[in-house]
């Protein structure tokens, strides 16, 4: 499966690229914004394409040509304001969904954030971030694509454990970025996750077992 990773240069994105490349079932296509990032991935033997989430749908659609699936794990980052969050986490995500449809890519996995499907759980410090994720998720759910929405808890850089708790609604908790990446890889290979949206934090259940129980 050829998988376009939007946000490939991010922390989760780099884990996803590595895991896809280590798999004998998939080929990673890293979507990046700069020639330097593209060259860095190509030096690692990873196919890379240039496109900007603040560009046009056509630009993103061209990057998705030849892909069998899209993984959206891009984010504006905690150092930016509401304006950039809306342009990347909301509009960039929506344009990516539309680009996938335009390119004929049916499988789409979105990395969202825990609890954003409930307004009362939106982050008090950055409600615009929760709103962006919430409405991007709704757009994907109504797109007609074969979607999976993963809503991880607080992201940490500890090594993955391969064990999680996954459910439609969970209390807040933490999860290693590596485990989020592993769950995305497992979701790509598991049709049971199509049409599912779920919170996920660290737990005691192996990832594949947790996904199958959704």
From TrEMBL:
InterPro entries (alphabetical): NAD(P)-bd_dom (IPR016040), NAD(P)-bd_dom_sf (IPR036291)
Domain of life: Bacteria
Gene3D superfamilies in the record: NAD(P)-binding Rossmann-like Domain
Residue ranges of every copy of the NAD(P)-binding domain listed in the record: 7-191
The name this protein goes by in its record: Sugar epimerase
Organism encoding this protein: Paenibacillus rhizosphaerae
Lineage summary: Bacteria, Bacillati, Bacillota, Bacilli, Bacillales
């Amino acid at each position: 499966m050829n998988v376009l990773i939007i946000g490939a240069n991010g922390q989760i994105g780099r884990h996803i690229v590595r895991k896809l490349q280590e798999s004998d079932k998939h080929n990673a296509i890293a979507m990046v914004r700069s020639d330097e990032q593209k060259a860095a991935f190509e030096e690692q033997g990873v196919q890379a394409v240039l496109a900007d989430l603040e560009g046009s749908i056509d630009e993103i659609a061209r990057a998705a040509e030849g892909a069998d699936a899209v993984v959206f794990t891009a984010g504006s980052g905690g150092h930016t304001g509401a304006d950039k969050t809306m342009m990347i986490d909301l509009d960039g995500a929506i344009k990516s969904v539309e680009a996938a449809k335009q390119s004929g890519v049916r499988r789409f996995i979105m990395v969202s954030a825990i609890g954003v499907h409930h307004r009362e759980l939106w982050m008090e410090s950055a409600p615009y971030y929760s709103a962006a994720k919430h409405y991007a998720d709704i757009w994907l759910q109504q797109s007609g694509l074969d979607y999976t929405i993963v809503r991880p808890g607080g992201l940490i850089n500890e090594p993955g454990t391969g064990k999680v708790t996954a459910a439609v609604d969970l209390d807040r908790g933490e999860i290693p970025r590596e485990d989020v990446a592993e769950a995305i890889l497992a979701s790509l290979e598991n049709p049971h996750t199509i049409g599912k949206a779920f919170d996920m934090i660290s737990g005691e259940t192996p990832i594949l077992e947790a996904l199958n129980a959704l």
